[in-house]
TrEMBL record:
Alphabetical list of InterPro entries matching this protein: BBE, FAD-bd_PCMH, FAD-bd_PCMH-like_sf, FAD-bd_PCMH_sub1, FAD-bd_PCMH_sub2, Oxid_FAD_bind_N
Protein name from the UniProt record: FAD-binding PCMH-type domain-containing protein
UniProt-listed Pfam families: BBE, FAD_binding_4
Source lineage: Eukaryota, Viridiplantae, Streptophyta, Embryophyta, Tracheophyta
Cofactor(s), names only, from the UniProt record: FAD
């Protein structure tokens, strides 16, 4: 028997080696053709070999893993790119687009690598990654109250650079500091300042992109239609108390003073009261732009059930609140946001949806029951309203302001068809071109309503985003006023008994 196993094992091993070698060989021929093309299409032909990683390159795996932000897609069976290209000069981007097109390979574009489904670095067909991480400059112009930020910069680096230059400016974007500008702002970009300031995409003044022909365009040369499209066109008696509070939160949070953002978390936890029993905890975390006294007075009037007291409040600067939300210890220097935490993915699965009518009390109790049964997943509720509703819905392709509107999808398809008729910039969830428009309704429905975060937004830019010019809000400019004090409170409402 032992002999049989050995003799069987050998051809299997040989077959495996042959398979690995033949995929390396395929990758090598793609590498040769791609490199030759890059050398022809850039004026730095001697340097471009340094920015292309084939599967046989010793650094290939680490370059790939650095920006895999989700361990679900960091396994041996996850599909791998034939090549990874890491441009260092703006002229390389156009050449990469031209060369990926000429060798007929799908191009995936990655900035921060935080896509929930790994769309920027995973594919079912052979593909090349255009990795934008080297483009991370953030140039803040305080006099002009604007900032040029490159697509490979992170949200944390943007916050840090603004804070470094000014203590009275801020920027309304997401909470996780390592999320990339390239995917984040193009998807809308929402965070704790959204009720007072709106979405990140509402502050885009200009952008530089590379089109399907490899040309670098700015707002003027791309035209207003494409500029529009790239801006977001991605228990027991206690039980009734919790249910009432969670129900009331739905009425209060989206309509209360714009300076107040109240995030609510529902999580299953082990009961401290009854051993071996699960309960659900509702936590309301608030961020208020003003003083503790003002916040206590406001909640006393609008949401007295929370019983907020001044001693529950922490007053701090905007930049400290950013660190707090990102789970850094008190007193951490803002420098911490410059750490990109490379190659440190954890497992994650998230889905988002929009609630247009408050969930009934029965519905909430059903959710509590399901959370207890499942034991692990939690819910995060972010209230919209405020400034979000004041921006005209047609202003950006982000469709989720006062509701979901399919006419934007149609406009997106028209722009996409005009600028990328052969659908070169495509991914598994991207906006289709016109011939397949009849499939649009069901496509959009599944994409925008029942999918992951990122697919709630415009996915699959019809171009490569190189950099954006953003307005940074401060008192007196066209982007409304910014109070300096942020008050944070956490109220862990009630634990619901499992029974
Ligand atoms: C832990 C975590 C926390 C998050 N928190 C928030 C939050 O608070 N608020 C919020 O709004 N969102 C949040 N998100 C969602 C996040 O904004 C999106 O997933 C976003 O698309 C990630 O951008 P990225 O550049 O890091 O990702 P990538 O994976 O690099 O890219 C995401 C998508 O954008 C495309 N893309 C990236 N760069 C470019 C470019 N330069 N040109 C063209 N296309 C490009 C990719 O091809 C892909 O389709 C969070 C995500 C995670 C994982």
């Amino acid at each position: 028997m032992r002999e049989f196993h050995l003799s069987l094992a050998f051809p299997l091993l040989l077959l495996l080696l042959l398979h690995v070698c033949s995929s390396w060989a395929a990758s090598d021929s793609v590498y040769d053709a791609f490199l030759k093309c890059l050398q022809t299409n850039t004026n730095q032909s001697d340097q471009v070999s340094n920015i292309v990683y084939s599967q046989t390159n010793a650094s290939y795996s680490i370059v790939l893993r650095n920006y895999i932000r989700n361990a679900r897609f960091n396994t041996s069976s996850t599909s791998k790119p034939l090549l990874i290209v890491t441009p260092t000069d703006e002229s390389h981007i156009g050449a990469v687009v031209i060369c990926a097109k000429s060798i007929g390979t799908q191009l995936k574009i990655r900035s921060g690598g935080h896509d929930y489904e790994g769309i920027s670095y995973v594919s079912d067909v052979p593909f090349i990654i255009l990795d934008m991480f080297n483009f991370k400059s953030v140039s803040v112009d305080v006099d002009d109250e604007s900032v040029w930020v490159q697509s490979g910069a992170t949200v944390g680096e943007l916050y840090y650079r603004i804070w470094e230059k000014s203590k009275v400016h801020a920027f309304p974007a997401g909470i996780c500091p390592t999320v990339g500008i390239g995917g984040h702002i193009s998807g809308g970009g929402y965070g704790n300042l959204l009720r007072n300031f709106g979405l990140a995409v509402d502050y885009v003044l200009d952008a530089q992109i590379v089109d399907v022909n490899g040309k670098l365009l700015d707002r003027k040369s791309m035209g207003e239609d494409l500029f529009w499209a790239i801006k977001g066109g991605g228990g027991a008696n206690q039980n009734s108390t919790t249910t009432d509070i969670v129900y009331k939160w739905q009425q209060v949070a989206p309509s209360i003073d714009n300076a107040l953002f109240m995030r609510m978390l529902l999580q299953p936890i082990s009961s401290k009261v009854t051993k071996k029993t699960k309960t659900v905890r509702a936590s309301i975390i608030t961020e208020y732009l003003g003083t503790s006294d003002q916040l206590v007075a406001l909640l006393d009037k609008e949401f007295p059930e929370l019983g907020l007291k001044k001693e529950d409040c922490m007053e701090m600067s905007w930049i400290d609140s950013v660190l707090w939300w990102a789970n850094f210890d008190n007193g951490t220097s803002p420098n911490a946001m410059l750490d990109r935490e490379l190659d440190s993915a954890s497992f994650l699965r998230r889905k988002s949806d929009y609630v247009q009518k408050p969930i009934s009390k029965d519905g909430l109790e059903w959710i509590f029951k399901k959370l207890i049964e499942q034991g692990k997943p939690g819910f995060v509720f972010n209230p919209y309203g405020g400034k979000m509703n004041e921006v005209a819905a047609s202003e950006t392709p982000f469709p989720h302001r006062k509701g979901i509107c399919t006419k934007f999808s149609t406009r997106l398809v028209k722009v996409k068809t005009a600028v990328d008729p052969d659908n070169f910039f495509r991914n598994e969830q991207s906006i289709p071109t016109l011939p397949s428009c009849e499939r649009l309704t069901s496509h959009m429905h599944s994409q925008f309503l029942h999918s992951t975060y990122s697919t709630l937004f415009l996915n699959g830019f019809p171009c490569v985003l190189y950099q954006m010019r953003l307005c940074i809000p401060n008192e007196g400019v066209e982007c409304t006023s910014l109070p300096l004090i942020v008050v944070l409170t956490v109220v862990r409402v009630v634990a619901v008994s499992a029974s």
